[in-house]
Amino acid sequence: MSDPVGYPPQPNVSPARRVYSRTYRVWAHVLLWTPIALTVAGIVLGLGLFAAADADSTYSSSALGYLGLVVWGGLAVLSPALLGSFIAGLVMLIRTRS
Description:
This protein is mainly α. It has helices at about 20-55, 60-95.
């Protein structure tokens, strides 16, 4: 009695897999790897500036240490945008692989 009267039973067919374009996959990689590259570059640049400021004890080298702090401050301010880009790229990449 669970079958509708007059209709054949529905076949067990899985839905078709969605195909994403090459542009979508490229943007997924761009959104995933750009924040990683910017964060690594900012950390390395900040550490390099701190090391350069620490190596030279003259008065003018302290500006390099302050510049390193500015770089790290910029990373701290941009971290929500970088994290949002990373998460969006990760979600896009997971969609293309599933």
